[in-house]
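Entry 14. Ran structure prediction on the chain below.
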Amino acid sequence: MTFVHIPSKTAELPFHAQRDACCNCGEIEGISLVETPLKRTSYMLIGGTELTLTVHLPYCVRCAKTSSRFPQGLFAKVLIAAGLSFALMLVAVVIPVDIQPIVGDHLPLAATIGGVLLTFAFFSLRKPSGSQTSYYQPVTLKGVKQKFLGDIVGVTLYCTNPDFAHRYTMLNQEFVASGFLKVEHR
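Output, structure tokens:
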């Protein structure tokens, strides 16, 4: 089976960004606008397309690194667990240690459980610190409305910080009123 990937289409969103508080933690000191890539990947059977929209968002020094951390979806987590399971099985077969007394004839099951547990542990440790609302991007691209030929006619953003979502909506009221922008939050 072949996986087809159509390269990313990139566009910059024309939205206004306030500079009074960090979009992640709400900090008001040391704010700078950071060009933040927002990605949306659509999978169809054995292929997928990726759309990248950029927007300038306010970040404090501590949260600026979250601007490039894309949240992983279920599909990516399943692929990571499968890869770890395969690696564990390979290690168990290659290393000259007799694991027969430990797992018996259930090596594939034990490797799968190990891969799932390692994946769960990895993503469980990726938590926001302090007043951050997200370890990953605090503003993500939830949806895009496109015409048949690809013209973007609507964007839905999801914010983990409700205060930022409200201020961003007010600042971009003309885009909200026209139906081009919708901002959702927790």
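The CA atoms of residues 53 and 62 lie 23 Å apart. Will compare against last week's run tomorrow.
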